[in-house]
Design goal:
The complex is a heterotrimer of chains A (55), B (248) and C (222).
Chain A: H1 3-8, H2 13-51
Chain B: H1 2-9, H2 11-43, H3 57-84, H4 87-119, H5 127-148, H6 152-184, H7 199-231, H8 236-247
Helix pairs in contact in B: 2-7, 3-4, 3-6, 3-7, 4-5, 4-6, 4-7, 5-6
Chain C: H1 2-18, H2 20-41, H3 45-68, H4 73-77, H5 80-86, H6 91-120, H7 125-153, H8 160-186, H9 192-221
Helix pairs in contact in C: 1-6, 2-3, 2-6, 3-6, 3-7, 3-8, 6-7, 6-9, 7-8, 7-9, 8-9
Classes of the chains: A mainly alpha (55), B mainly alpha (248), C mainly alpha (222).
């Protein structure tokens, strides 16, 4: 098996690769989104605590 | 064992333990998904009928399985939260919904992309695709309801009732769509699955499915952690935690 | 207990009678929606005959959902719902009587109007009897299931659109079996199977939906 054959997917390349691209986007977004959100939540709580002088 | 579960149910310990687990779960999920996709895209032989287009199965079928599995987990934990008033179970349900909805969406889109070379059109009112579409509506309804209610506790309880009603309805919806489909569909359509799959094609599928499962647990824990933090923002341990992290 | 149930039913019917000008609204909605289809699709009898079961059922479903939206609204706003939950009678029973009252007020006129619309859409005569039968079995399911969604959204300011999102997916089985049965009947096929399923759904929703609705109302009351 060589690379160009692999990418060609027997003529189904657009279907196969667009599916997998979308799949990866969704998988990555579902991991990165919550991570960023977690950081934002922490920042919010931290700044609130600072304002109240508790930190 | 019980002691461990009890400790897990307390937000503080959950936060700490989940934080330790997430990297490991994520790593395991990435390895399994990579193995499954590698096996499916590279190693498995092309299907004798569908050629290479069948390789979408390694994404489509695990996503479809997850879409149902997550709904069940969501409804179960919502029911536990409703009955035994365990906040963590409520948060688990709330956190599961967007992940389940995105897997449902993925299953729908990949099914439709797969349908184009197989059926010649982007969308066929196939029984499974149609049920999947209705499942997406159930997820969106759950999320919409929770978003519309301001009080977090009431939102969780209302969502729980809706999720339980949904679980009772899923088999009915699925069955009725099957019945409707056999009325309408001609025999020309090739079914997506085949009764027997060769073992070299099956193993990557199972690997990808296991990977998706672990991935779901990792991401749901991530979401629950931020929800816990938000809910407990006024408690002492959160202050303590942020103080410690601030020093570092 | 039966007394409480009947008193409640009587009260709701009396209230509806006092506002009888509003009673016609769901019915008018039903008729107008059905009338729109020939205007949109064209007057060919062949096509209209084919879509008649589906069109009538979709219109009935929307009319049922939209009229259901206000079934708990006034009682929720003026506090009588809260009193009902404080009474010694099981709330699911009182909820059931409210749902039955709503069904009597809205669905029964719909059923009376449906044969006329079926004729307008050129539905074969064999289908009309079955259409009435599916409406008789199916619309109570719509009211019962819809009431859960209404109970969940009654406290929200903009519940209408959300209600559609919550309730319509749950209406799908009723729609499939009912419209399917009417279509089969119009073709002269046996319809006992789908009718049996509608009946089963009616029994299931009659037992479970009042419980879910009263649980949902309790949550909405806070």
């Amino acid at each position: 098996m060589n690379w160009s054959e692999f990418f060609h997917m027997g003529g189904y390349a657009p279907y196969v690769w667009s599916s997998y691209a979308l799949g990866l986007v969704i998988l990555v977004a579902n991991a990165v989104g919550p991570a960023l959100r977690h950081r934002r939540v922490k920042e919010e709580i931290r700044s609130r605590l600072r304002r109240e002088g508790k930190l | 064992m019980w002691k461990f579960i009890h400790r897990l149910a307390s937000p503080k310990h959950f936060y700490r333990i989940a934080g330790k687990w997430i990297p490991w779960l994520m790593a395991a999920a990435v390895i399994l998904i990579a193995l499954g996709f590698y096996g499916g895209l590279v190693k498995a032989p092309a299907d004798y009928q569908q050629g290479d287009s069948f390789r979408i199965i390694y994404l489509h079928v695990p996503a479809a399985w997850m879409s149902l599995f997550i709904y069940m987990v969501m409804a179960t934990s919502a029911a536990i939260g409703l009955i035994w008033k365990i906040k963590l179970a409520d948060l688990f349900a709330t956190a599961s919904a967007p992940i389940g909805a995105s897997f449902t969406f993925l299953a729908l889109v990949t099914g439709s992309i797969w349908g184009k070379p197989m059926w010649g059109t982007w969308w066929v009112w196939d029984a499974r695709l149609t049920s999947e579409l209705l499942l997406l509506f159930l997820y969106l309804g759950f999320m919409g309801l929770q978003a519309a209610i301001e009080d977090r506790r009431n939102a969780a309880r209302a969502g729980a009732v809706l999720a339980i009603v949904g679980v009772v309805n899923i088999p009915i919806i699925h069955y009725s769509v099957e019945w409707w489909n056999t009325l309408h569909q001609g025999p020309t359509v090739t079914r997506m699955d085949k009764p027997a799959m060769h073992i070299s094609m099956l193993i990557p599928l199972l690997q990808a499915a296991a990977g998706f499962q672990i991935y779901y647990f990792a991401t749901v824990l991530m979401r629950v952690r931020s929800l816990v933090l938000q809910q407990e923002r006024r408690s002492g341990w959160v202050r303590e935690l942020l103080r410690e992290e601030g020093v570092r | 207990m039966l007394n409480a149930f009947l008193t409640m039913l009587q009260r709701d019917l009396l209230l509806a009678y006092r506002h009888r000008s509003e009673l016609a609204n769901p019915l008018l909605f039903f008729v107008i929606v059905v009338t729109l289809f020939p205007l949109a699709i064209g007057p060919e009898p062949g096509i209209l005959k084919n879509i008649a079961p589906g069109v009538i059922w979709v219109a009935a479903l929307l009319a049922s959902m939209l009229s259901l939206e206000s079934v708990f609204r006034t009682d929720f706003n003026d506090g009588s719902l809260e009193l009902m939950f404080l009474s010694p009678h099981p709330p699911s029973l009182l909820v059931l009587s409210k749902i039955i009252a709503h069904w009597l007020i809205t669905a029964v006129p719909l059923m009376l109007m449906a044969p006329l619309l079926a004729v307008l859409l050129h539905l074969p005569t064999e289908g009309i009897g079955v259409l009435l039968l599916t409406l008789l079995l199916g619309t109570p399911v719509l009211s019962l299931v819809g009431a859960i969604g209404v109970a969940l959204t009654v406290g929200l300011r903009r519940g209408g659109m959300l209600l559609a999102l919550l309730v319509l997916p749950l209406y799908v089985p009723v729609l499939i079996f009912a419209a399917g049965a009417v279509r089969d009947a119009a073709l002269g096929l046996p319809v006992i199977g789908p009718l049996a399923f509608l009946g089963a759904m009616l029994v299931l929703s009659l037992t479970l939906a009042p419980l879910a609705t009263s649980a949902a109302l309790r949550i909405s009351l806070g």
